């Protein structure tokens, strides 16, 4: 990864002897995105991909994202 210029954004384990430096701001953003995908996959229609057309599937994702954003959990 270092040869390609890719920086690690996942922190190393606490018991690791040589800690790998990471970007904490990038890790927070990555965590938010992973949580968003997790919430989207709670919707059965999306995680099983009932809609085979790309535009219909994207519409379902937009509706689910809007409902997730506006309804408190």
From TrEMBL:
<keyword id="KW-0472">Membrane</keyword>
<keyword id="KW-1133">Transmembrane helix</keyword>
<feature type="transmembrane region" description="Helical">
    <location>
        <begin position="53"/>
        <end position="71"/>
    </location>
</feature>
<keyword id="KW-0812">Transmembrane</keyword>
<feature type="domain" description="Transposase DDE">
    <location>
        <begin position="3"/>
        <end position="68"/>
    </location>
</feature>
<dbReference type="Pfam" id="PF13586">
    <property type="entry name" value="DDE_Tnp_1_2"/>
</dbReference>
<protein>
    <recommendedName>
        <fullName>Transposase DDE domain-containing protein</fullName>
    </recommendedName>
</protein>
<dbReference type="InterPro" id="IPR025668">
    <property type="entry name" value="Tnp_DDE_dom"/>
</dbReference>
